[in-house]
Structures are given as structure tokens and as C-alpha cells.
Amino acid sequence: MTNNSQQLPPGPQISFSEFMDKVNDNPFNFLMDLIQKYGDTIYIKLQQKDVYILSNPDYIEQIFTRDYKLFSKARAAELRPFLGNGLLLNEGESHRQHRKIIQPLFLPKSIKSYSNIMVDNIKHISDNWQDNTTIDVLQEMTMLAMGVMTESLFGINFRDRDTFSKVSDSFTNILESFTHVHEPVKNILIEESTNENKKQNKFQDSLDYLNQKIYTLIDHIKKTNPEKPNLISHLMKAKDPDSGEIGLPEKQIRDEIMIFLFAAHDTTSTALTWSLAYLATNQMIQDILQKELDSVLEGGRVPTGDDLPKLEYAEKIFKETLRIRPSVWALSRLTTEEYKIGEYVIPNSSVIFMSQYAMHNSPKYYIDPDIFNPERWTKEFLFKLPRFAYFPFGGGIRSCIGETFAVQEGILALATIFQKWKIVPTTEGISFEPKALGGFTKPKYPINVIVKNRK
Ligand code: HEM
User: Fold this and answer.
1) I want to staple 444 with a disulfide (CB 3.0 to 4.6 A). Which of 55, 228, 230, 435 is the partner?
2) Which stretches within 155-230 are classed as H helix?
3) How close is the Cα of 191 to the center of ligand 1, in Å?
4) Residues with Cβ < 8 Å from 346, sequence gap 6 or more?
């Protein structure tokens, strides 16, 4: 029972437009300021919605693990009409059944088998760099992550930069449509003004482009080699939990591919971009990494899956990158019933907002949080750190299915790149300012670096 006299957590009295201005200006600083001022449980009334910002790791743990059934995904309903009902947006029993179908492809043994594909693709990108030239890091890392994903998950060795960049740009356009509007997307789609029509066209063109590419991909696999093991052939052979028939419906396969394209490449490429940016400006860290690589990969041989446990420093670099610039900066959930947390009772249909960026950059859990320091990740530190003071991959049943895949790709990319290249900033330097694109943390300005052959 909701009791009207129940106490609300502290929080700012702010109008919706004021709130949106601050979010559009710099959501990261706005959030950190709010937490500093009001503490780890904050309440904001936004239009008719009750919004709770939680930054207590025990509360976050409770929501993601023990009580996950009491929440739905806050933005899933808005995105579903466009991106479909793939794993990321699916809910309840259907989510559980589809996750069970897909899980075998993400078991540690399966992921280790992708190591060679990963290294091949990383080499394909980085071997093309010319000594003493400038590269656009995000662009290169996007090509790298796309190649790794299409070959490991879809079984096609397709390294077309033009298609990769169009696919990536299409998701950016779709995300921008969701980020820049205050109302659900369907409202902008029926707006009359020319500006909005332009936005609608860009949005619709991007969606059409992705659909066309995905259906061509499904057709290609059906016609060429439906038996070759990969995510798509796996879904074609899986038992449909709804009909009991063999093979998921084509629409569901399209939805899963859309979600994997969406979830897998941008997150990893952004993380690697930040890693390279931090290393370019920290020659000492780069030197320690190169020492590790020269010792583990004797004679300059390429890394393999068996080297992963030995590449400890590379792993710490990737972990520290996901701390200071988590690719996903915040997650939200919707309460499906009244929910008690600490001393507060949160009403049904409230939005709960939990931010990796805020937790990972909090001085409560990290000494000198603004400093990129891979060495902080000692066993002792990890042992003392509350579980949800670090959650770049979310948690519980909805956690990232691709976590091990992404970490392995991150380590192998750092190893393969830094074994051959030294990376330094250009004379313009590097900005570490993040920009929010939906829930993603992108670099606000292009990150360019100079690559120098170590030999
Ligand atoms: C650094 C890279 C990555 C980061 C930081 C990341 C982060 C996340 C986070 C935070 C979630 C949870 C979303 C939520 O709870 O609402 C998630 C879910 C998901 N991720 Fe990742 N991800 C990464 C890479 C990948 C890769 C490489 C794949 C696939 C190969 C992938 C596939 C997925 C899928 C399918 C889900 C939905 C899982 C479900 O709801 O059952 N991600 N990811």
C-alpha cells in the first residue's frame, strides 16, 4: 500500500525543460553534482514520472540479482518497435528461453575458439597502418570490432569498410533520434515540420538499410552454408519455444541479429578507443604493457587464446578503461510493483536509474578516480570492492552475454596492436571528454593518434 505521507528521498525541484537542458549539456557532470549534493538515493519528479537515482552498490545488487523479476526494462518498449524483440529488449519468460538458446555460443570454450578470428581481424586492421601517420582511432576500432563480430558470430569473412561504416552510422542515427527528443520516438515520427521530417527520413533510412542488410545476410547463410556453426545457423536449427517447431521464425532471427549488431560492436570499439587514448598519453603504462608482450609473446609471435591468462597487464588496462569510461554509462529499470529499498518505498511504474559512470568515478570506492591507473586492480583491491561499485557489463540474469567475448577481444587487440606499434598523441592532443549517446559513452571529439612502428 502506498502511503502518501511516506518520506521521499532528497532531490532537486526541477522542471522538465531545465532537466533536459542540463542532460543535453553534460549529463555526466550533472549526475555527479546531484549525487554529491543529495547522496546515494535521489528523487526527481519529471513530467508525471517518479525517477529514482540509486548509487548505493547494495541497492544496485539487490535490483539486478535478487529482485530482478520485479522490474522491466525502462526503455525497451520505446525501442522494440524499431529494433525488435532480440535478447537485449526481450522480457520475462521469453527472454529466459531465448537466452538459454543463445547461451551455448557464449560458453568460455566457444569464445576461446574465436581467438584466431579476433587476432586475424585485428591484424588486418593494424597491419595496414603506415609508420608515423595519424589514425582516427574510433573509426579504426569500429572496423576492427565489426570484422570480429561478423566473422565470429555470423561466420562471414566480410571486411568491407564501406558497409561496416554504414551499419555503424545507421545505429548512431537511430540512437541520436532517441537521444535528442524528449518524447517517445513515435511522436517525432508524425511531426510536420521540415526539420522533423528530415530527422524521420534519416531514422527510417537507417532502419531500412539495417533491415535490408540483415535479411541479405540471412539469405546468404541459407543459400551458401546453413550447416556452418554460427549464431544464425544456430537459431535456424533451434527449437522455437513458442511453436515447438525447429527453427526460430525469420522475424525473431532478424531481431536477434539486429540486437547483436547493436550491442556488440559499438561498446567494444568505444572501449578500445578510450584504451588507446589513455595509453597514447601515458607512455609509462605503454612501456609496461610492451614489456609484458615482449616476454609473453617470445620472438614477436602473434597472441593466441592460450596466452590470455598471461596477459595480465593488458587485462588490467582494459578493466581500468571500462572503469573510467564505461561504454554503457547508465542502466534504467521500471518498477512493476511497489518496491522497498532502504528506508524508502518506491511506487509502481517508477524509473530507477543506476549509473556505471557515477559509481566507477566515485572517490568513495576509487582513490584518485580521475587518474587512469591499471595497477589499482590488485586481487586485494577487488576483494574489498563492493560487487556493484564496478559493473560495466550490468549484472544478474540480464548481464551482458558477450562479457567474456568483449574482454577477450579487448586483451587480444591491445596485445596485437602494441606488440607492433607505439602510439603517441598528435600536436592537437587528446580530449577525454565523454559524450552521451543514449546509454553509450562516446568520445565528444575525434581521437587521433600517431602510430609508430616499434621496429
Ligand atoms: C566492452 C564491451 C561491452 C560492454 C561494456 C557491454 C555492456 C552491456 C551491458 C551493461 C548490458 C546490460 C544491459 C541491461 O542490463 O540493460 C549488456 C547486455 C548485452 N550485451 Fe553487452 N557489452 C559489451 C559487449 C558485448 C558484446 C561483444 C556482445 C556480443 C557478442 C554483447 C551482447 C549483449 C547482449 C545480447 C546483451 C543483452 C543480454 C540480455 O539481456 O540477456 N555485448 N551489455
Assistant:
1) 435
2) 161-179, 185-189, 194-224
3) 33
4) 50, 52, 335, 338, 339, 340, 352
- The pLDDT tens digits of the residues spanning 87-135 come to 999 999 999 999 999 999 999 999 999 999 999 999 999 999 999 999 9
- pLDDT of the residue at 187: 38
Number of domains in the chain: 1
Judge if pTM exceeds 0.90. Answer: yes
Cα end-to-end distance, the chain, whole Å: 70
289-318 pLDDT per residue, tens = 999 999 999 999 999 999 999 999 999 999
Residue 51 pairs with which residues in a beta bridge?
44, 351
Residue of 148, 231, 400 with the most ligand 1 atoms within 8 Å of its CB, for mutation: 400
pLDDT of residue 339: 97
What CATH number is given to the structural domain containing 176? 1.10.630.10
> Distance between CA 108 and CA 122 in Å, rounded?
20
Which residue do the cell numbers 582494459 mark? 318
Q: Is residue 226 part of a domain?
A: yes
DSSP per residue over 224-280, as a string?
H-TTS-SHHHHHHHSBPTTT--BS--HHHHHHHHHHHHHHHHHHHHHHHHHHHHHHH
Distance CA 179, CA 173 (A): 10
Neighbours of 109 (CB within 10 A): 7
The answer to whether position 345 is within a domain reads yes
CB 286 within 8 A of CB 418: yes
**Is residue 179 assigned to a domain?**
yes
88 Cα to the center of ligand 1, angstroms: 8
CA 345 – ligand 1 centroid, Å: 30
Contact 449, 426 (CB under 8 A): yes
Q: Which amino acid is at 53?
A: I
- pLDDT band for 2, please (50, 70, 90 cuts): very low
Q: Are the C-beta atoms of residues 68 and 46 closer than 8 Å to each other?
A: no
* Ligand 1 atom closest to 89 (CA): 40
Question: 374, 418 in Cβ contact below 8 A?
Answer: no
Domain span at residue 286 reads 16-453
Residue 10 in domain? no
pLDDT tens digits along 389-440: 999 999 999 999 999 999 999 999 999 999 999 999 999 999 999 999 988 9
Cα atoms in the 13 Å half-sphere on the side-chain side of 386: 16
- Give the pLDDT band of residue 20 (cuts 50, 70, 90): confident
Higher pLDDT, 17 or 78: 17
